[in-house]
Amino acid sequence: MWLCYRRPRRTVAFLAGDFLAAVLRAGAFVAFLAVDFVAFLAVDLVAFLAGARLVAAFLAAVRLVAAFLAGAFFAAALRAGALLAAFLAADLVAFLAGDFFAALRAPLAVTPRFTAGPSAGRRCAPETTALN
What we know:
- The chain is mostly helical and about 130 residues long.
- The chain is rod-shaped and about 165 Å long.
- It has helices at about 10-105, 125-130.
- It has two helices and no strands.
- Keywords: Membrane, Transmembrane, Transmembrane helix.
């Protein structure tokens, strides 16, 4: 029976110590959870910012590719326009050269002849034929 009896002061001191240990453990646990939560939020923030940077880098790359393709398209259109202009210039030069050489090789103009009427086959002055 003497094992069941405890002095009240020692019991209160034991319970107070037990309560203090529980409070300290709970405080340590809450501090651990707070640090863990803050670390989790920090990691999430870093991951979010890294993702935002990756998205920004991706969009910058897309913008650069779009600018490059627009420049390439503009250069191709410019080159096609230059080739078309060169082709049309060569075509115009060939046409004008053909006109020039056709006029150069043409036979000399002769006075016209009457083909009908009393003076058929005879030549006459151009002003006379203009009146007919």
